[in-house]
Write a structure and sequence with these properties.
62% helix; globular; 228 residues
Length: 228
């Protein structure tokens, strides 16, 4: 049987039903966690960002803008607000990349004790998980607002519920599902139960795996030297 868009019901289930609109709080809570993690980094990892509180303050302003504009459910009338969200995620990504590069340089060539730097790698790695979860959430089918429309584009990720029609009728991914993708990709350095379908999704997952692998490899090697 076909639905109004011309797709069969099985196909609609397999490729993702229309979202009824997500609440903004899970993604914003994760964003606030990422900002807090930046604040606990040692000065040596954020010297490339200038004044310590500048980037977190800018990120906080963007969070306030989003909260004032729409603190509730995400709707389709939010193209400008989505642009603000993308700038916010890009800012967190850039700041964490700088911290990661500073961390790797300090672990490889720093003359100071490596133990504090090994501890500092934890917030860098956790921020990596959060920020890529946000990117996946914003990428899939054009973002959370686009997913509320019946004619959203084909998915960027193939979730298990989508590959088995009838197993989860009317199931739609939420922010935690994308955060889970990010966590498993950062720990396994490859997709696990959810497969990337588009070039953008594959590129993001490859970039995250590389960043996570380099972080873990450098940190573990320094930790072994410390234990010795």
């Amino acid at each position: 049987m076909d639905d109004a868009s011309g797709r069969s019901r099985d196909d609609a289930v397999a490729w993702g039903s229309r979202s009824h609109g997500e609440t903004r709080w899970p993604a914003l809570s994760a964003t606030l966690c990422a900002i807090a993690l930046q604040l606990v980094l040692p000065d040596s990892l954020i010297r490339g960002l200038g004044y310590r509180g500048l980037i977190p303050a800018a990120e906080g302003v963007l969070v306030v803008v989003i909260l004032i504009a729409n603190p509730g459910r995400i709707s389709t009338e939010e193209s400008r607000l989505r642009a603000v969200g993308l700038v916010l995620i890009a800012l967190i990504t850039a700041a964490n990349l700088v911290s990661l590069l500073e961390l790797i340089h300090a672990l490889l060539y720093g003359a100071t004790s490596g133990r504090p730097l090994v501890y500092a790698s934890v917030p860098v790695w956790l921020t990596n998980v959060i920020v890529f979860g946000l990117w996946y959430w914003e990428l899939d089918r054009g973002g959370p607002a686009a997913r509320t429309t019946a004619n959203h584009r084909r998915p960027d990720f193939l979730f298990p519920q989508m590959s088995t029609p009838g197993s989860a009728p009317d199931w739609v991914p939420a922010f935690f599902d994308y955060l889970y993708i990010s966590f498993t990709n950062a720990t396994a350095f490859s997709p696990t139960d959810t497969m990337p379908l588009t070039l953008g999704a594959k590129g993001l997952m490859a970039l995250q795996s590389l960043a996570s692998l380099v972080t873990v490899a450098v940190v573990v090697s320094r930790a072994v030297n410390i234990l010795r």
